[in-house]
Design goal:
It is a single chain. The protein has helices spanning about 30-40, 65-70, 75-85, 110-115, 125-135, 185-195, 225-235, and strands at about 5, 10-15, 45-50, 90-100, 100-105, 135-140, 160-165, 200-205, 215-220, 240, 245, 255, 260. The protein is built from seven helices and 13 strands. It has one domain: Metal-dependent hydrolases (TIM Barrel), CATH 3.20.20. By secondary structure, the protein is α/β, with parallel strands linked by helices.
């Protein structure tokens, strides 16, 4: 597998948006397989962000709540176990769906999710309040994606902490057609975030081990998901990438990404 050549100033690369077959019906690979692929590609860590009950979940929605959460985190747990044995940091999050509008949730735990079954019926604003009460953050995922499963572009600047300005599946060297050749989706997301004073994140939206190489590069290792959340809220000096180019944390393009 090709390995990403990381900048000397930001040698720690993290994936913030990936799915496994354990929790997302649209994914192709297990948590362990995804973890191995990212380690081989040169990543320091990953966030496993499965589709929840409002999206393309692989977990039966009729399961009792606590049992549903136990099934929902299996991809993360499998990836975490592999990471513990092989030197890859693995953190948990999830992707919340609202009729095609999606949000990445970071900084809470599966235990917190178990304690808040009301999230299953929560509105976008209620979701924000609940996640914030647990010390987490809400990131609007790919807000300008135009796809068949998204009936309309809906923006919620008052109920998010950040915007996924760089989504690797919109701009990559491997795929054409669909929403895979739409750098404009990312440009519009960056403009939206800038206009509302919201920080940016970057991730691949990865569903298989054929990695795009997107993510966020830091000058230090992250300690946990809370550390990641704080780095976004404080606008730490991190780089964004779609796997083809590097961008600063405002979304301004820098250098081309080189692979070995």
């Amino acid at each position: 597998m090709p390995k990403i050549r990381l900048p000397e100033s930001h040698p720690y690369l993290y994936e913030t948006h990936l799915h496994t077959v354990n929790g997302s019906i649209c994914a192709d690979n297990t948590g362990a397989e995804m973890a191995r692929a990212y380690k081989e590609a040169g990543y320091t860590g990953i966030f496993v962000t499965e589709h929840n009950w409002g999206g393309n979940t692989a977990v039966k929605r009729k399961l009792p709540w606590l049992q549903w959460v136990d099934h929902f985190v299996r991809g993360y747990e499998e990836a975490w176990e592999w990471g513990q044995q092989n030197g890859l940091a693995v953190f948990w999050g999830y992707e919340a769906g609202y009729d095609g509008t999606e949000f990445l949730i970071f900084g809470i735990t599966p235990s917190f999710l178990k304690e808040h079954p009301e999230l299953r019926q929560a509105s976008v604003s209620e979701q924000y309040q609940i996640i914030k009460s647990g010390g987490g953050i809400v990131v609007h995922a790919h807000p300008y994606r135009d796809a068949r499963y998204i009936p309309a572009i809906r923006l919620f600047p008052d109920y998010v902490d950040a915007v996924e300005g760089i989504n690797g599946s919109h701009h990559n060297r491997y795929l054409d057609g669909g929403y895979y050749d739409h750098e404009d989706f990312n440009r519009n997301a960056i403009t939206y975030a800038t206009n509302h004073g919201l920080p940016l994140t970057a991730g691949s939206d990865m569903h298989s081990t054929r990695l795009f190489g997107a993510g966020m590069a830091f000058g230090r290792e992250l300690t946990d998901a809370a550390d990641f959340c704080n780095s976004i809220l404080t606008r730490e000096d991190y780089l964004l990438t779609d796997g083809m180019f590097w961008y600063d944390n405002s979304g301004a393009p820098l250098d081309e990404v080189l692979w070995d």
